[in-house]
Amino acid sequence: MSAVYDCNTQESRTDGLKAAASAVRSSRLVVLPTDTVYGIGADAFDAGAVQSLLRAKNRGPDMPVGVLVGSWTTVDGLALGVPPQARALIEAFWPGDLSIVLPHAPSLTWNLGTTRGTVMLRMPLHPVALELLRDVGPMAVSSANVSGQPPASTAQEAQEQLGDSVAVYLDGGPTGDPVPSSVVDLTGDSPIMLREGAVSSAAVSEVLGIPVLPKS
């Protein structure tokens, strides 16, 4: 049976983060608040847990899971290289609402879906998410909803969709408008906006000093 913790009170938040960390280390799933929408997460390096995440969402490997990190420096161990463009976007928008796609380090043994050698990385601007990430390390995280259904902006909405497939729900209150992160692909010759969400193409272009191409 799932456990729900109100992270708006200190004692419950402490207990919830402890339970969530234990769940992640035990190959189970957690729901956590982020600065965009609620996310369903698992240990990024636990292939079985990531598969459980995809099953909970009724989603196939053709839609790979992104990775949330708790610090800028974590990226250096996950990407094959962090180009100057990525550094500029990290400094401008992290922690925040921009996901960056980079080639992943070939030494990593993980299975996030059909990624074609890439990984989508983001550092969220939410204290509960950051505290958990800094405890357990990088997490594979997707929006906390069944595929095709609206993303959850509250823990209750996430629980209504995902039920007991999730071990621990961290309730951080409403996230506000359920706007997803923007996604910029830096794996090619030119930056491409794969999804325009909370951060505009114009804002990304301004930081990079070059136009960001739309997804073809």
Automatic annotation (TrEMBL):
SUPFAM superfamilies for the chain: YrdC/RibB (SSF55821)
Localization: Cytoplasm
Catalytic activity: L-threonine + hydrogencarbonate + ATP = L-threonylcarbamoyladenylate + diphosphate + H2O
GO molecular function terms attached to this record: ATP binding; double-stranded RNA binding; L-threonylcarbamoyladenylate synthase; tRNA binding
Positions of the YrdC-like domain: 14-199
EC number of the protein: 2.7.7.87
Alphabetized UniProt keyword annotations: ATP-binding, Cytoplasm, Nucleotide-binding, Nucleotidyltransferase, Transferase, tRNA processing
Record-level GO cellular component terms: cytoplasm
BP-aspect Gene Ontology terms: regulation of translational fidelity; tRNA processing
Database matches in InterPro entries: DHBP_synth_RibB-like_a/b_dom (IPR017945), Sua5-like_dom (IPR006070), TC-AMP_synthase_SUA5 (IPR050156)
EC class: transferase
Main location as per UniProt: cytoplasm
Family: Belongs to the SUA5 family.
Protein name: L-threonylcarbamoyladenylate synthase
Protein's organism: Amycolatopsis marina
Lineage, highest ranks first: Bacteria, Bacillati, Actinomycetota, Actinomycetes, Pseudonocardiales
